[in-house]
Amino acid sequence: MENSKKAYKNPIRAAIASLLIGMVMRILHWPFSKGIIFISFAAILILYALRFFKKEEKKSVDLIKMALVLFWTTNGLLTILDFTHTLFFQIGTAFTFIAWFAMEGTSYFMSKEGNAKNSITEIIWNFVMVIGVLTLICGGLMHLLSWNYSIPTLTLGLTIVTSYILRDIFTAPKKNKDDINNEELYS
Predict the structure, then answer these.
(1) Whole-number pLDDT of residue 182
(2) pTM
C-alpha cells in the first residue's frame, strides 16, 4: 500500500497532534492534560489496530510497526495512569523501533523507483520538522538542566511538530485517477 493511500491516515495524525497538544498542556500544568493524553494514546492504538487488520497483505515490517505502536501506546497509557512498572514496554518500544528502522527506515520516504518523491515544498516542510524535533530535544535538555527559557523552547518545538502533522490533514491532496476510483477503500 503506497503512503498516500493508507487507511485511517488523517484520524491517526489528528490523534498524534492531540497527543502533542496534551503534552504541551502537561508541561504547562494546564488542567485536563492527562485526559487528553490518555484519550490520544487510546485513539492511536485503536485506529492503528483497525488499519493493521484492514490491510490485506501483511509483511513482516507491518507486524513490527504494529508491535511498535502497541508497546509505545501501552507504555503511554500505563505511564499516564502512574503505573510504575513500564520498563518492559519501554524496552519493547526501543527494540521494535530499531527493528523498524533497520527494515524500512529512510526508505519510507522514497518512491517505488528509489527516487526521493518530495517536491521543494515538501523538502522545506521536512526541514521544518527536523528543526522542530531538534528544538524539542533542546527544550527537553534545557528543562532537565533547569535552564531559563526551557519551557518556551520545548513549547515551540512541540508547536512546530504539531503544525507539521496538522498540515497534512488540512491540505487537500492531489487526486489521480487511481485515488478517485478507490476513494471509499481508504477513508
Answers:
(1) 46
(2) 0.69
